[in-house]
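--- STAGE predict ---
source: upstream dedup step, 1 unique chain passed
mode: sequence only
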Amino acid sequence: MNSNRLESISVREIGRIVDKFELMRHFLDTNDKTPIWDGEIWLYSNKKQSNDYFKGKVPVQIKGASVDKFSLKSRKYKLVKSHLKAYLKDNGIIFFVVEILDSDRVKVFFKTLLPIDIEAILKDMGENNSKLEKFYELKEQELEVLCRNFIKDSGKQNYKNIQLDKSKINFKSYSTTIIGNEKIDFDQYMFNHGLYLYGKIQDYGIEIPIKKLIIDTKYEQVAVNIGTKTKIYYDYLIIKKTRMKQTYHLGIVSNL
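--- STAGE serialize ---
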């Protein structure tokens, strides 16, 4: 399959997925006039999609890959240093790789490349001009949440803040947030995509990006009363959740 056809099919597929969301709109280019960007995904807060409801945009790069069989949950793709440096100056990008068996059978993989991610890849790349990176299978229902979180974090991870020496800053507090919705499993989203940690400086309202947190375990404490009519033996429950399973542990009342 020639490169023009690969590009046309892959861009069409990303456009199809974006069109499933009433609060999203795509501006994607199949002419390959810009070798580093293939367009943008715009997000709104209202179905009217007018300028009054515009929330932000996500730069995207889309590559098509002809394959004999689909990869499973992830695949590798080569990222180029000069492109990464350009993405860094633009506060990041979402990079899509579309595996193509034929015009009707495709599978999408992606990698979110925010400034913190790009800085880490460039550091690992060293003197090399490219590096293979893992891309993950796109769950179509998560695309809007991925884009909204990208806009939120991209706005905080500007190039100037990324370059600051964090070891010399006295942070007042730390925070991390994720935008979600009822259509996704919040915990699995957190395990799959991680969290970005920010620090607040004393007397200033800005948040400085520190690093990406890879979460493998979540603990949640829930108040319960387990016992008899006259005596409580356990007054809280610890829920331990990982990507693969969930377990429960009873907490003993402190005054026993």
